[in-house]
Amino acid sequence: MESLENVETRQIVGMIGAVVLFLGVFAPVERVGELGGISFVGVWVLPGTLVLLLAAATLGLALWGKMRWLWLTGGLCALMLPATYFLRRAEIVKLGATMPLEWGWIVMGAGVLVILVAAGLHEWEERS
């Protein structure tokens, strides 16, 4: 791990993205009547755990300056989140139920976007 004064902007951006993604997993993604909001990890345990592991891996990779690997972690999350969203929506429509979306999706999407921006910053700085 690099000393704090040697941490680059792209690393900080990657760490922020990882933390936002991590927090977003615990934010409400659906509202279920009187029960209130349910988090991503509460609805889908396995995908939720995988996203948490990817967020932790992203944080570690950003800390150690391995920015190219953020394309992998961010890309996997960018594929997994919409896939689980559409699978859940299909289940809800099939049951004829209504479950309004909550703000957790926005937080997770923002985290993934920031992770991919950090990876892009690395590529951009390497070419400059």
What does it look like?
It is a single chain. This protein has helices spanning about 10-25, 40-45, 45-65, 70-95, 105-125, and strands at about 30, 35-40. It is mainly α. It has one domain (about 5-125). Strand 1 and strand 2 form a beta hairpin. Helix 1 packs antiparallel against helix 3 (about 45-65). The chain is elongated, with a radius of gyration of 16 Å. The model has no long low-confidence stretch (mean pLDDT about 90).
Name the descriptors.
single chain, 128 residues, mainly alpha, 5 helices
Q: How are the SSEs placed, and which strands pair?
A:
Layout: H1 9-25, E1 28-32, E2 36-39, H2 40-43, H3 45-63, H4 70-95, H5 104-127
Antiparallel strand pairs: 1-2
Secondary structure class reads mainly alpha
Distance between the termini: 24 Å
Helix content: over 70%
Order of helices and strands: HEEHHHH
Average of per-residue pLDDT values: 90
Please sum up the structure shown:
Helix content is 70%, strand content 7%. The chain is mainly alpha-helical and 128 residues long.
